[in-house]
Design brief:
4-stranded antiparallel β-sheet, Endonuclease I-creI, 58% helix, alpha+beta
Length: 301
């Protein structure tokens, strides 16, 4: 089961709330479903849980049943239909539409004055027209509609609820989407999927930990590489000094430093400074080793 399917399954376990909330959830469903006209309501879904929730939801909201329900033999796509004009009129009247007129797809905000009704509305919209990407891959939640006014009005509703979606037109559809993990977590919690919200949070924590470990490993690797390269250059300089019979002519401090490096070629500067006798600072030791390399380079010239 995909993460999006798991989210919808959790949302379908949410309590339908009051009749007003059930009406609001149905409103969200119908504005994002396959067909919503004065002659036909058609909802197509691949979610078993959503298909099972819809009959109970419509009965609670409008006291009506679907004319066509999914067959138990159906797999993959479930189709629910209402063609009875009396039933559709009851639905339209609940939303403040004229049953004898043309259904203009827009959001009647008068139905969504209460916070719990708004949350139910968004839940219905997501169940019918939303999806979410697996947070282990990336953070992306979107709702898709082919109605421009619906997209504009729901965007304003989101903003009023404290969520600000980005909007884009793709293939004739209007898409509202979110890409911030914290916003997606809050939105899922708001509409009734707190467990899924925790899943997004856990994925983010795991990613952050992985990135932190990777940065540390990369940093440690870079430091080791730097240490090895520096030590190799210093050892090469000391070898050159010996080959040119210049080693014994070095000042005592430089000669002692060279012997120390030859004895501990694998140590970093800070570690090498600790084993020096008498003890020296990392800065002092670094200065002496650089001086050895400079003397060696002069011999070459």
């Amino acid at each position: 089961m995909s993460f999006s399917s798991e989210v919808k399954a959790e949302l379908c376990r949410s309590d339908m709330g009051t009749r007003a909330c059930a009406i609001a959830e149905c409103y969200g469903v119908l504005l994002f479903c396959n067909m919503f006209t004065a002659n036909e309501i058609k909802i197509v879904t691949g979610s078993n849980d959503f298909a099972a929730r819809l009959p109970k939801l419509f009965e609670r909201a409008f006291d009506i049943t679907f004319d066509v329900l999914p067959s138990k033999a159906d797999s993959g796509r479930h189709i629910l239909l209402i063609k009875d004009t009396d039933k559709i009129s009851r639905v339209l009247e609940a939303f403040g539409y004229d049953p004898k007129g043309v259904v203009a797809h827009h959001v009647n905000l008068g139905i969504l004055e209460e916070d719990d009704c708004r949350e139910s509305f968004v839940r219905g919209a997501f169940l019918a027209g939303g999806s979410i990407t697996d947070p282990e891959k990336r953070y992306h939640l979107e709702l898709v509609t082919d109605h421009y006014r619906v997209s504009r009005e729901i965007t304003a509703l989101f903003v009023d609820m404290g969520f600000e979606p980005r909007c884009v037109v793709r293939g004739g559809n209007y898409i509202m989407y979110f890409k911030q993990s914290s916003v997606i977590e809050d939105l899922l919690t708001t509409i009734g999927a707190p467990v899924s919200a925790m899943g997004v949070m856990s994925a983010k924590i795991e990613k952050d930990m992985t990135n932190t470990v990777n940065r540390k490993v990369n940093c440690d690797t870079a430091n080791v590489t730097k240490t090895v390269e520096a030590s190799a250059a210093q050892m090469a300089a000391i070898k050159k000094l010996r080959e040119h019979m210049a080693f014994d002519e070095l000042p005592e401090r430089l000669r002692d430093t060279a012997l120390l490096r030859e004895k501990y070629p694998e140590l970093a500067l800070s570690e090498l400074a600790k084993v020096a006798v008498p003890p020296v600072t990392k800065s002092c030791l670094n200065h002496r080793l650089r001086k050895l390399v400079e003397v060696s380079e002069k011999l070459g010239r």
